[in-house]
Amino acid sequence: MSHEPIKGPASYFPSIEKKYARPIGEWQQLVRDRLPAKHMELVKILKEEHGMGHGHANAIVAHVLSTGKR
Fold first, then answer.
1. In whole angstroms, what is the distance from residue 70 CA to residue 62 CA?
2. How confident is the model at residue 70 (pLDDT cuts 50, 70, 90)?
3. Got the DSSP string for 7-47?
4. Which helix (H) or strand (E) holds 58?
5. Domain ranges for the chain
6. Measured on CA atoms in the order 66, 43, 15, 33, is the torsion positive or negative?
7. Of 69, 55, 70, 68, which is closest to residue 8 (Cα–Cα)?
8. What percent of the chain has pLDDT over 70?
């Protein structure tokens, strides 16, 4: 049985958890708590308030927005 590699924003999750020492679910909830802010506003929050790099912040926001879960 072959496993497809994780693609898209979720492919960043292991490195985000390792680098920022918080489970991805916490980051996702942080973004959900700020909705209905716009995509780039949410990215800016993660970067400025939590020191996250742009690619990692963008991956979390994109994933949360694509799921539509609050």
1. 13
2. low
3. -GGGGGHHHHHHHH-S-HHHHHHHHHHTTTS-HHHHHHHHH
4. helix 54-67
5. 9-67
6. negative
7. 55
8. 93
